[in-house]
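quick one, 223 residues, struct below
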Amino acid sequence: MMSFIKYLPVAFVLAVCTGAPTVAQADYDAGLKAYEQGNYRRALKKFTTDSDDFRANLAAGQMYERGQGAEKDIDLAADQYGRAHENAHEKGLEDIKARALERIQTFMDDGNFTAVAEMGNVLLRRNEPGDEEAAFKLHQTATEAGNPPGMVYLAQDYLDGRGVAKDKKAAYFWMKAVEKHFGKFWWTEFFVKYFLEPVYITDMPEDEKLEVERAAQTWVPKN
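---
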């Protein structure tokens, strides 16, 4: 796949992206202004304020990829490109999806496990025959490496039966195992504690929960 954005200035990419939510406009504008002024730290902070703005997702992904406003971090870059792909998919913006996918694919080819996990989500959004099973395998691969997004996505796979039989105990296992690995992926902790557990695990017997929690505490990544 050809490279769409690797060597393009962030300001140029932002200028050609349209259709962001109105509620995100103030942070986006402030981020763009800060970037143009060379205040990369402030720009990155603004671009990561609203996770639903695909323009900001693309910009933040490029900044993490290049080490602008923060240390270079391909995990966080892949995370942002994954958000951009999701938000563009919801709006039917195929060109933006292609830009994000190209970077995810590149990172995945380079062995980055966050990109592996995000590629699983790309397949889920594509939703062609066999995509759920392939997505599950990618989430599983990322999880075995101790990747927090992969672990959260794998828990969702087990909850929803995406590419695997539904298994609430397995889902809860990965919700608890990821607790030791949240790290820089702040959203994984928020998503598990305030959405997955309260919604899906309330009816699990306490003895089963304790059994799963003990097992999860001893889990260690393979890689």
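The CA atoms of residues 115 and 122 lie 10 Å apart.
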